[in-house]
Amino acid sequence: MLRSEFQKIIVKNFASSSKRNIHSLPKLKRVVINYRITDVRESQEATAAAQTEIMAITGQKPRLCKAKKSVAAFKLRQNEPLAFKVTLRGARMYDFVEKLFNLVLPRLRDFRGLSNTAFDTAGNYNLTIHDQTYFPEIDLDKVTKIRAVQITFNLSASSQEEAKMLLSALGLAFKKE
Known about the structure:
The chain is α+β, with helices and mostly antiparallel strands. It has one domain: 50s Ribosomal Protein L5, Chain: A (2-Layer Sandwich). Helix content is 34%, strand content 19%. It contains 4 helices and 5 strands. Strands 2-3-1-5-4 form a 5-stranded antiparallel sheet. The longest helix has 18 residues. The two termini are 31 Å apart.
């Protein structure tokens, strides 16, 4: 639904307001979700539970990311699992974004909008939700540990202003300045 709305309404509004070619307008390329697992040493069941949780949230099987080097200060060994990573594109991406903007973010406690400063120099937006139980697919009875979900919106925008305009048009609420 968000994808068809984006193609019909938002693209026409962007094209008419900026008088640019439709193909040069900013687009949402992909959404990358990182789900850090810190309790791997304690049990393999925690890893399996985290994998099923991220699969329920995204609808796609995650990739396991491992440590490249050992770091003694962080009690980290080489090839030890660190996080699950999912890259969403196409219809699944738009479904996830619609669910995030319409269901998850309004459920956050004292939500007044997201930060305007979370853009990087390329115009991508980074967001962290500190509790995975805000997602409606998570069964609260099976949750053993609260984990953070890191979300990166990879945009084809050439500036931060274009990226903010695109995310606002998609439905992301930013804080009032």
